[in-house]
Amino acid sequence: MGLFISLAVGTGILLMLSRILNAALGIRIGYMAGSFVNHLVGTLFAGALLVCGLRTGTFHGGIPIPYYLGGLYGVIALAAGNYATAQIGNTLVTILLITAQVLSAALIDHFGLFGGQPIPLRASVGLGIGLLIAGAILVQRKPATSLQNHRMGSGPM
Amino acid sequence: MIMVCPPPVLFCNNAAIVKWGFGMSQLLAIGASLVCGALVAALMRLNASLAEALGVLESSFVVHLVGTLFALLLVGRSLGTSTTSRILAAPKALLGVGIVGVVIVLLSNMVVPKLGMALSTGIVVATTLILSVVADHFGWFGLPQLRVTLRRAFGVATALVGVLCLYLR
Questions:
Q1: Measured between alpha carbons, how far is B160 from A134 in angstroms, rounded to an integer?
Q2: CB neighbours of residue A136 within 10 Å
Q3: What is the DSSP string of A42-78?
Q4: Which residue is closest to B78 within chain A, CA to CA?
Q5: How much is the average pLDDT of B48-70?
Q6: For A39-94, what is each residue's pLDDT tens digit?
Q7: Choosing among B34, B36, B47, B99, which should be mutated to test the A contact, i.e. which has the most A CBs within 10 A?
Q8: pTM for the structure as a whole
Q9: Would you say B99 and A26 are in contact if contact means Cβ atoms under 8 Å apart?
Q10: Would you call A63 an interface residue with chain B, using a CB distance cutoff of 8 Å?
Q11: How far apart are CA A152 and CA A143, in angstroms?
């Protein structure tokens, strides 16, 4: 359990690193082209490891088609996230995204969706999700400040 | 694949709201943000299920291959133009982001079947929240410095208690 928690923390650290690199790349070549390059380099890298004999399993057929679509959803999610950021700003997008992400995660666990083992919802999970969302909101840079900077009397928020 | 989030810190761009009022595009953007979050959760579980069938690295390879093909479909037309020269002109170190992506999917594939989606997501989200507070505090990555405030420290503590709740069985 401890090992996997450490690996999850490692995932978070690398995710942050990749966001920074992706942002720097996206500014230079555009976000969609950045996504393409990102996936292409990843494919070549993972492909090279596999060709060199690093295997963690075997390729075989008979797998439900939806299992293959994670990469497609990643590209769509990136486009949706960038569209939303341009419209309503990073702060609100981050809060909404994290909210939807943790709620969906709990539902996927509860119903055992997409091939996972069901993990029934517990009160502690509901509380944990609430606290996580509250934490995400508190951590955001003061949105009020930048709103006030732009507000011209009749701002709706 | 999971790098769906916008750049870590952008200025809150509310110019559109001020100009147009709270209109259709803002509602669409709220919907897009929620869809984005749900997709990220779904793809984490799907990638892990693929990994349980094929292997964690094999899954990461397939995920990136499918992503490449789909992104190619979306940017294909622009690749003949200035985009290609801009890609070639970009600092090579930035292209390393693809390698980081492979490792992210690999780790996520190992973690999700063991910890479940809620706890995995909770740990990853809390880690990124803490890192962004630390990065802001020291002004890393050329971003404007923002010292840790009581509010932000309290936010981190709240998120950590939240993860503890997800951990309890």
A1: 11
A2: 25
A3: HHHHHHHHHHTT--SS---S---GGGGGHHHHHHHHH
A4: A33
A5: 95
A6: 999 999 999 999 998 888 888 888 888 999 999 999 999 889 888 988 888 889 99
A7: B36
A8: 0.86
A9: no
A10: yes
A11: 16
Q: How confident is the model at residue A145 (pLDDT cuts 50, 70, 90)?
A: very low
Q: What is the pLDDT of residues B86-132, one digit of tens each?
A: 888 888 888 889 999 999 999 999 999 999 999 999 999 999 999 99
CB atoms within 10 A of CB B112: 28
Per-residue DSSP letter, A135: H
Using CA atoms, how far apart are residues B70 and A70, in angstroms rounded to an integer?
11
pLDDT at B103: 96
Q: Which of A119, A70, A48, A35 is nearest to B108 (CA)?
A: A70
Q: What is the CA radius of gyration of chain B?
A: 19
* Residue B16 predicted with pLDDT over 70: no
* 8 Å CB contact of B126 and A135: yes
Q: B160 CB contacts (<8 Å, ≥6 apart)?
A: A135, B126
Show the tokens assigned to A59: 């390729």
Tokens matching residue A33: 């082209």
- Beta-carbon-side half-sphere exposure of residue B30 (alpha carbons within 13 Å): 6
Contact A5, B114 (CB under 8 A): no
**What phi, psi does B116 have (nearest 5°)?**
85, 165
Task: Read off φ and ψ for residue B16, nearest 5 degrees.
Answer: -65, -40
**C-alpha closest to that of B17 among A10, A94, A157, A112:** A157
Looking at residue A76, its pLDDT comes to 92
Rounded distance between C-alpha atoms, residue B32 and residue A104, angstroms: 15
DSSP-derived secondary structure for B104-139: HHHHHHHHHHHH-HHHHHHHHHHHHHHHHHHHHHHT
Which DSSP symbol is given to B44?
H
Instruction: Please say whether the beta carbons of B6 and A85 come within 8 A.
Output: yes
Tell me which residue has tokens 């069985």. B169
| ipTM surpasses 0.90 | no
Chain B interface, best mutation among A13, A88, A98, by max B CB count within 10 A = A88
